[in-house]
Prior knowledge:
Helices cover 27% and strands 45% of the residues. By secondary structure, it is of the alpha+beta class. It has a seven-stranded antiparallel beta sheet, with helices on one face. It starts with a strand and ends with a helix.
Amino acid sequence: MVEQNIKREFNCDIERLWNIITDNNNYIWRSDLSKIEIIDDKHFVEYAKNNYPTYFTITSKEKLKEYKFDIENTNIKGKWIGIFKKLDNGNVLLDFTEKIEINNFIMKLLAKPYLKNQQKRYIKDLEKELNK
């Protein structure tokens, strides 16, 4: 299993940050996606720019605290954990962890740097959206 974590502190309202991250109807700010298909309140499919699908099942959604889901596509299977914490200075600490199992041997070698780059891109996209 490959695990990758990223933490970032944001100077913004926790509710705004929560709403941006958990609103799958508004994905246009994500530079890595072509679309999100919402199946029901627990299931959705993200399509990469090349239309490659990844399936998500929400396992926990505790408002302003945690957002967790299972992830699966033909190459990986795993979990994503997002923790939101309001800090004493008024900022919000966002703590994301991805834990995945990889089906392809070659992808296993590239998984950690790939996840790290994906997380950096997500944070960069999120910062752009927050600065609008």
